[in-house]
Amino acid sequence: MSERLELRRLADLSDDELARAYDPQGEPWLRVNFVSTADGAAQGSDGVSKSINNPADKRVFDTLRERADCLVVGAGTLRAEGYDVPRLPLVVVSRSAQLPPTLRDAPRGRVLMATAASADGLAEVREQLGEENVLVLGEDEIDLATLKGELADRGWVDQLCEGGPSLFADLLAAGVVDELCWTIVPRLTGGNAVRIATGAEVDVPLRPALLLEQDGTLLGRWLVEPAQGAG
Fold first, then answer.
1. Cis before residue 190, ω within 30 degrees of 0?
2. pLDDT for 73-116, tens place per residue?
3. pLDDT in tens, 120-155
4. CATH of domain 25-69+157-225
5. Is 60 helix (H, G, I), strand (E, B) or coil?
6. Which pTM was predicted?
7. How many Cα atoms within 13 Å fall on the side-chain side of residue 42?
8. Are the beta carbons of 151 and 2 closer than 8 angstroms?
9. Domain coordinates of the chain in residue numbers?
10. C-alpha–C-alpha distance, residues 223 and 50, integer Å
11. Could you tell me if 83 and 162 are in contact, meaning their C-beta atoms sit under 8 angstroms apart?
12. In angstroms, what CA-CA distances link 102 with 48, 81, 85, 134, 218?
């Protein structure tokens, strides 16, 4: 019989306790962090996730970033959300090898590009970032399993992905996601907003490992169950 999952109050946890509650369960460990409304929208009406997150989500968001070795994000999400250069190494995933404008002046070595050999922008991004910071992981498609291993080889074993939804679906399809960290805010938005995973069709079983609550916001860890017959 599985262990009963207890709902805990986020406010009752110290920062150290919260960090320990998100300890990885292996190495390398790739977790994906998302926020959505109760009806599944991963974005607000303005098309970005910032308009639906809240202080509870921000606290867990900051905790995950503090403990991560690297950050993996799709180029489209980086452009849409207006990312600046974070304190930890940022791995941009882009089939076209197009570097978002906000990252073009990043210090050498702080931003890496994961792309394919056929990418139109390959030569330019090598000039921008340095050849050692451009990972060519396939001819036309990016081999995401190899990406996970390449990052681990650099010593980045606690790997945090912040999407977007199409990259999340691709990572699930590649079988490399270990955990979903998912915040559900107590709001309904309707419309045709994007869900947290879109694109590739997947059917991935999850197991809840942690559930926190603050002011109606639910914050959970969901572990990806191994595929049947694996091992």
1. no
2. 999 999 999 999 999 999 999 999 999 999 999 999 999 999 99
3. 999 999 999 999 999 999 999 999 999 999 999 999
4. 3.40.430.10
5. helix
6. 0.94
7. 17
8. no
9. 25-69+157-225, 81-146
10. 25
11. no
12. 16, 10, 8, 18, 32
